[in-house]
Design goal:
The protein is mainly alpha-helical. It has helices spanning about 5-15, 20-25, 30-35, 45, 55-65, 85-90, 110-120, 130-140, 145-165, 185-190, 190-210, 220-230, 295-300, 305-310, 315-325, 330-340, 345-355, 360-370, 375-385, and strands at about 15, 65, 70-75, 80, 215-220, 280. It has a domain at about 280-385.
C-alpha cells in the first residue's frame, strides 16, 4: 500500500540531505574556470548539468533497512542489498584506486583564503562559511598562474566539503579539509571512491540511530547512493535524463512509491558486476565478499576427517555432485532440482550448503536457488526449514 501524503511529508521532514547535484549546478562556473580542471579526476563531476534533487524519503527508508553490523540493507525477510566502492567510482566516472583519505587535518584556514574572501568583498572579516566559499568561486579572477592555482584549491575544497564528503554542518565547512588541497597532486591521487563509500556507511549508521521526532542531517553524498541503487535495481529506476554521463546524473527526479522496496525479491536485483554478489537471498546473509575465490577449491583443501564430521548424512551421489561442481550456478540448479523433486528437504539443502561451502559462497547459492523456485516451493522451503544445531 502506498504511503499517505501525511506519512510522506513526515518522512521528508525527518531527514535533511546535505550534498546534491544542484549544489554543483548552482555554482554556474564559466567554461574558462571549468576548463582549469580538465586534467582533474573530477572534471566530469564539475560539468554536471542535471540539477535534480535527491529524495529524502528514499534515503530515510534505506536508513531504516540498514544493518550496521554487516553493512547491508535488509529490505525484507527474504532480501538484502549491499554495494562496493567500485560502484561508487563508476557512477562518478572516477577510479577506485589510490591512498586512503587520511591526511593530517589543518588547524586553521590558509591565509591566502582569508585574503581572497576579504579582497573580493565576500566577507570583510574573512570569515569562512559555505556561502562565502560559493561566492568566492564565482567572483575569483583566473588571469594568471597564481590566481588559477588558488581557484583550483578553493574549488577542490568546495568539492570535499559540499559534495564528496560533506561537512556535518551544511553552513560551516570544516577547517581540517584545507590540508587536502595544499598539494593538488596528492589530492588527485586519493581514493575518493573508497572515502565516499565509507562516508555513506557512517552516515547510514547515524541515520539508523537518529532520535525519532528530530530532524536528522544526512551528510553523505546521497546522489551517489541513489545512482548505485538505480543501476542495480531496475524496478526503482526513474526515467532517464538528458545527461547520460557520469551516471550520477543519469536519472530524472521523478518520485516512485518507495514502499515497493519492502517487497523487492533477490532476483530483481542485479548482482554487483565486480563482486559477483551484493544481493542476499533467504537465509543467506553475510558481511564480507568472496573476492572471486572459488568455494569448491577451498572445500577441496579441507581434510577428509573435518569434512566428514561436518557433512550432512545424505546420499553418496549427492555428496559427489556437490564436491564435483565447478560453478555456483550449476550447484544452485542441481540443489533446486533435488529439492523440487523431493529428493532433499529444505533442512538437508541448507545443512549441505553450510557444510560444504564457506560463508562467502553460501549466500550466492541460496539466492540463486530461491530465484529459481516456484512459489509453492518457496512456501515449502520456509515451512520445512529448521536450522541444524552443531
Amino acid at each position: 500500500m502506498a504511503m499517505s501524503t501525511k506519512d510522506t511529508e513526515e518522512i521528508r521532514q525527518s531527514v535533511k540531505l546535505g550534498a546534491g547535484l544542484a549544489t554543483l549546478c548552482k555554482l554556474k562556473l564559466s567554461p574558462e574556470k571549468k576548463n582549469l580542471m580538465v586534467n582533474s579526476v573530477f572534471y566530469d563531476v564539475i560539468n554536471i548539468q542535471n540539477n535534480k534533487e535527491s529524495s529524502s524519503i528514499f534515503i530515510k527508508l534505506f536508513g531504516d533497512f540498514y544493518d550496521p553490523t554487516n553493512r547491508r540493507f535488509v529490505l525484507n525477510n527474504n532480501t538484502s542489498f549491499s554495494f562496493c566502492a567500485k560502484e561508487v567510482a563508476d557512477v562518478l566516472g572516477i577510479e577506485n584506486t589510490g591512498p586512503d583519505f587520511n591526511a593530517p587535518a589543518a588547524k586553521k584556514v590558509p591565509q591566502f583564503v582569508k585574503d581572497l574572501v576579504i579582497g573580493y568583498g565576500v566577507d570583510s572579516s574573512g570569515k569562512i562559511s559555505t556561502t562565502t566559499i560559493k561566492e568566492l568561486l564565482k567572483k575569483m579572477n583566473v588571469d594568471d598562474e597564481e590566481s588559477r592555482l588558488n581557484f583550483k584549491k578553493v574549488l577542490c575544497y568546495f568539492l570535499i566539503e559540499m559534495f564528496l564528503i560533506p561537512s556535518p554542518d551544511p553552513k560551516k565547512p570544516r577547517t581540517g579539509s584545507w590540508s587536502m588541497v595544499e598539494d593538488l597532486d596528492v589530492y588527485e591521487k586519493v581514493n575518493w571512491a573508497k572515502a565516499i563509500y565509507e562516508d555513506l556507511h557512517e552516515s547510514f549508521n547515524k541515520l539508523k540511530t537518529a532520535t525519532v521526532g528530530k530532524q536528522h542531517n544526512f551528510k553523505a553524498c546521497a546522489p551517489v547512493f541513489e545512482a548505485v541503487v538505480f543501476e542495480r535495481i531496475p524496478s526503482l529506476k526513474p526515467n532517464l535524463s538528458s545527461y547520460p554521463y557520469p551516471p550520477i546524473q543519469k536519472y530524472d527526479a521523478k518520485r516512485k512509491d518507495w514502499e515497493l522496496l519492502k517487497s523487492i525479491k533477490a532476483d530483481e536485483i542485479t548482482p554487483c558486476s565486480y563482486c559477483g554478489d551484493g544481493v542476499e537471498g533467504l537465509f543467506g546473509f553475510r558481511g564480507g565478499r568472496s573476492g572471486g575465490k572459488n568455494p569448491v577449491k577451498r572445500l577441496r583443501g579441507r581434510s577428509s576427517t573435518s569434512s566428514g564430521e561436518r557433512r550432512l548424512k545424505c546420499s553418496e551421489n549427492f555428496e559427489e555432485l556437490v564436491i564435483g561442481m565447478e560453478e555456483r550456478e550449476n550447484i544452485s540448479k542441481q540443489l533446486t532440482r533435488l529439492f523440487d523433486t523431493d529428493q532433499l528437504s529444505a533442512r538437508q539443502v541448507n545443512d549441505t550448503i553450510n557444510n560444504f561451502f564457506p560463508e562467502t559462497g553460501q549466500m550466492m547459492v541460496r539466492a540463486r536457488m530461491w530465484s529459481k523456485m516456484s512459489e509453492a516451493k518457496q512456501v515449502a522451503f520456509i515451512k520445512d526449514f529448521s536450522p541444524s544445531t552443531n
